Amino acid sequence: MEIKSLKDWGLSPQQPFVIAGPCSVETPEQLDKTVSALVKNGIDMIRGGVWKPRTRPNSFEGVGSIALPWIKEVKEKYGVKFAIEVASPFHVEEALRFGIDMLWVGARSTVNPFTVQEIANSLKGVDVPVLVKNPVNPDLALWIGALERINHAGITRLGAIHRGFSNFNDTVYRNSPTWQIPLELRTRYPQIPLINDPSHISGKRDLIPHIAQMALDLNFDGLIIESHIDPDQAWSDAAQQLKPEALAELIGQLHTRLVSVDNPVFESQLEIIREHIDEVDREILEALSRRMRLVEKAGEYKKMNNVAIFQMERWKKVFETRPEWARALQVNPEFVKELFQLIHTESIKKQEEIMGVAFYSEEKKK
Ligand SMILES: O=C(O)C(=O)C[C@]1(C(=O)O)C=C[C@@H](O)C=C1
């Protein structure tokens, strides 16, 4: 994909790059007051929802096209740039008609290649920056596919927004961050600017600073954060919006990190640490290999005695004790639980192969 670096997008060189504004544009007064306060706090790229894709019917679905002249007015009055979500060719046409500066494709549109293609077709021959939110489901291929469709329409000022992934029972986050997905996108397409959306990941304002800092620690290029002049009275997403002053305070506290430093001492020290990490990784793999050989032995033994692979009591014991051992060793027990679930699945696969081989060879004998 041919994509322009964020510094060539013609935006202000804020560090970090921040897009902020209300979840929804509600009234001319709310918009004016919010934008005025954001501008005072140094924000010059505003976001605002005009058409809102809501999960349930009868929720507020955005004021629609009547917001566009209000946006045009604040853009002129305060000299700011404005980004909105588009979910159809009609939205694109309306947005461009009113001089909207940046568009984004929402998570519920990214999941649908038909919708993304229609949006892409309506962008042919237009030079506007477009950001593509991750799909609601944790599917990197779908996210990349949407970026490719928009890119093939000729959009080179193209970026990705990480807004987290729907979950059934994550009690902490509204949308699980599942950081490995945006990091994999970055690894495969380092040229695509990556913007983090801590508002939609957290769903609550208290968690926003932690997620925003984590994104900067992971070298994201920018943040998109919801901010409303009076969050508690917001018509949508009241719990996750910040007052403009709170947003400014948050930005002031964030630490931006460097990709690397031109410092030979740092480089050589890091190299030494990495060599140790290589050694430890090898030890981990050797230990895993030894465990697998034992699991195979257990599998052979089960086969000889016609015993089932899955041993619930033993597995319960393994699953209980390993996180405890981990805690004593200052390793995150939750991580170790996931790790052992993976290991157990692999053990079962191995033992199934062992049982299967017997089945096939006996079949052959017949
Ligand atoms: O203890 C066994 O029976 C094993 O085969 C080992 C093992 C494991 O990986 O720890 C694998 C499968 C069983 O469900 C329980 C435990």
TrEMBL record:
Keywords: Isomerase, Transferase. GO terms for molecular function: chorismate mutase activity. The keyword Membrane does not apply. Its EC number is 5.4.99.5. The keyword Transferase applies. PROSITE patterns: CHORISMATE_MUT_2 (PS51168). It is an enzyme of class 5 (isomerase). InterPro entries: Aldolase_TIM (IPR013785), Chorismate_II_sf (IPR036263), Class-I_DAHP_synthase (IPR052899), CM_dom_sf (IPR036979), CM_II_prokaryot (IPR002701), DAHP1/KDSA (IPR006218). It comes from the Bacteria. Residues 264-355 form the Chorismate mutase domain. This is chorismate mutase. It comes from Fontibacter flavus. The lineage of its organism: Bacteria, Pseudomonadati, Bacteroidota, Cytophagia, Cytophagales.
